[in-house]
Specification:
The structure holds two protein chains of two kinds.
Chain A lengths: L15 H9 L12 H11 L14 E4 L6 H9 L40 H14 L7 E6 L6 H10 L7 E7 L10 H8 L3 E6 L3 H8 L8 E6 L6
Parallel strand pairs in A: 1-2, 2-3, 3-5, 4-5
Helix pairs in contact in A: 1-3, 2-3, 2-7, 4-5
Chain B lengths: L3 H15 L3 E5 L8 H6 L4 E3 L4 H13 L3 E7 H6 L2 H10 L4 E6 L17 H5 L5 E4 L4 H13 L4 E5 L17 E4 L5 E5 L3 H7 L6 E5 L1 E3 L3 H11 L2 E9 L4 H7 L6 E7 L10 H7 L4 H12 L9
Parallel strand pairs in B: 1-2, 1-3, 3-4, 4-6, 5-6, 8-9, 8-11, 11-12
Antiparallel strand pairs in B: 5-10, 7-9
The chains are: A alpha/beta, B alpha/beta.
């Protein structure tokens, strides 16, 4: 007997609004809720060498969601890729749910870190890259997603200023820039990373092919930042 | 005699040779001691520069990959400045580390209040699951460092100080030791306070317990001591006065008891000078301790020795 359900086919990018809707009660989402959605999808669909069956594999890539606010897009992608059961989504934020309004790595399968307080992911990502290097694990790459306003936190700048001169070339930061920082200058994000010796690329954060090209561009000897520009939060 | 801090780099350098899981993370302070170790283990001796949030965050990242980080700087820059990193990057992420501090409450009084950290242990008490070692002698520091490194993925704090007792005792990384037995009060001397406490209680009918592992607090030892020495308890701690008073109260919750917590005062002295002058200013010299202990326990003449 063949049981046919909609889950017998892989989820696609087109399924994500519905998966998010299980958490929000609405399949229409404003730009703020989906600012990270395309970046996350391209990473999990085409770039990261991870999977639900590989979470104990020391050789897996590491993706650290530092910007823990608004994690619906993250949970939707984790559900689409089989890390998190879809049945968990409707209980989002409830007492018995593993899925909170900020993710907890102890509770969420596939989450490498718990986040919520801004400015913690990038320093932890630096340590993760150092730990993989110290163990001779040459393959795994480390990715950390931060928001443009999250970069206000000085802890990020401790990490940025260290990682460039340290030549941590397995480290990648993707900055989802929805112009939410109160005090910013045009081009300021990429310039600060570049000044610290990082390779920097700025792309349209909704253009999957452009994101993929940026995520896979070589950057020998340097860590890399991809600034993914999306609609302003205030728009 | 060498100091606890003099022992730190040589001991940890040997441990780096023995245990491939170990890594040392520094923020400039203490880096010179690791010059040779860094040549042998360039990827496991990491100096992040003067960046204490990164110091702890990077330590947590190392732990997430399965390593055992030893994170080191002065106590204020290790516990107070990156306190949220201790709470979230270690505690909330559910990973461990060995934190080793130097400079203690006022190891460098001429350096002023910016380099004093009498509140470090009290701050850690707001968090869950920390083991806290306060050695009283360089040999004990070496023993307790080894215990800390070997403690699986536990969160362990080792508090090194210049202040030290003349003789090391056989500490085990767990229990209080009974150093003197009496019948009219119990004094718990923490780490480097033992020497002054022994001088202060000479000739008094007092039990002296020696505590170098203060968290978890050895409630069993305190309860046992109170059976013969009564339930007047004085704590003498080299950090903020009263830090362990709640732990002592919890240990004796089911019996009437009194606890006096002696240690470093909260008020900022705004004085430089020497370690001895600061100990005296906080009432942690043998003469003042004797007056306080004898007065509290109603024990013999209050005449100070020496």
């Amino acid at each position: 007997m063949t049981i046919t359900t909609e889950h017998s086919r892989p989820y696609t990018h087109g399924d994500l609004p519905r998966l998010m809707g299980l958490m929000t009660g609405d399949e229409k989402h404003g730009p703020a809720a989906t600012s990270t959605l395309d970046v996350l999808w391209v990473l999990y669909d085409r770039v990261l060498r991870v999977g639900p069956e590989r979470m104990d594999d020391p050789g897996r890539d590491r993706f650290l969601l530092s910007k823990g606010h608004g994690p619906m897009a993250y949970y939707a992608v984790l559900a689409a890729k089989g890390f998190v059961p879809v049945e968990w989504l409707p209980d989002f934020g409830s007492y018995d749910s593993p899925l909170g309004h900020h993710p907890d790595r102890v509770l969420v399968p596939g989450a490498e870190i718990g986040s919520g307080s801004l400015g913690h992911g990038l320093p932890i990502a630096v340590g993760t890259a150092l730990g993989l290097r110290a163990q001779g694990l040459a393959e795994p790459r480390v990715w950390v997603l931060v928001g443009d306003a999250e970069l206000d936190e000085g802890s990020n700048h401790e990490a940025i200023a260290f990682a460039g001169p340290a030549g941590l070339d397995r480290l990648h930061t993707v900055v989802v820039d929805n112009s939410s920082a109160s005090h910013a200058r045009p081009g300021g994000i990429a310039a600060r990373f570049e000044a610290a010796g990082w390779s920097a690329i700025t792309v349209d954060g909704r253009d999957h092919d452009a994101l993929y090209a940026a995520f896979t561009a070589p950057h020998p000897g340097r860590p890399q930042v991809v600034v993914a520009r999306v609609e302003p939060k205030s728009a | 005699m060498d100091t606890m801090r003099d022992r730190f780099a040589p001991v940890v350098s040997r441990l780096l040779d023995e245990d491939p899981r170990l890594a040392v993370v520094l923020a400039e302070i203490g880096r010179d001691g690791f010059t040779e170790a860094q040549l042998r283990h360039p990827d496991r001796v990491i100096n992040v520069g003067i960046r204490e949030q990164l110091l702890v965050g990077a330590g947590a990242g190392l732990a997430l990959t399965g390593m055992r980080p030893i994170v080191h700087t002065f106590a204020g820059f290790l516990v107070e400045r990156p306190f949220e990193q201790l709470k979230l990057d270690l505690g909330h992420q559910d990973v461990g580390a060995v934190l080793v501090s130097a400079a203690a409450s006022f190891d460098w009084p001429a350096g002023g209040f910016t380099h004093m950290a009498p509140g470090d242990v009290a701050l850690l008490d707001t968090l869950d699951g920390w083991t806290v070692h306060v050695p009283g002698h360089p040999d004990e520091a070496e023993t307790l460092l080894r215990h800390a490194v070997a403690a699986g993925d536990d969160k362990v704090y080792v508090r090194l100080s210049v202040q030290s007792n003349p003789e090391a005792l056989p500490v085990d990384g767990e229990r209080f030791l009974t150093v003197r037995e009496g019948r009219a009060g119990v004094v718990v001397a923490v780490g480097p306070m033992l020497d002054a406490v022994l001088a202060a209680t000479e000739g008094l009918d007092i039990t002296v317990l020696y505590a170098t592992t203060v968290r978890p607090f050895d409630a069993t030892a305190l309860r046992r001591a109170t059976r013969t020495a009564g339930t007047d308890v004085v704590l003498v701690e080299p950090y903020l006065a009263g830090t362990s008073t709640p732990a002592a109260n919890d240990a004796l919750a089911d019996v009437p008891h009194r606890v006096l917590g002696l240690g470093v005062g909260r008020a900022e002295l705004r004085r430089y000078g020497t370690l001895t002058e600061h100990l005296t200013a906080h009432g942690l010299d043998a003469r003042t301790l004797r007056e306080r202990i004898a007065g509290f326990t109603g024990n013999g003449p209050t005449t100070a020795r020496g």
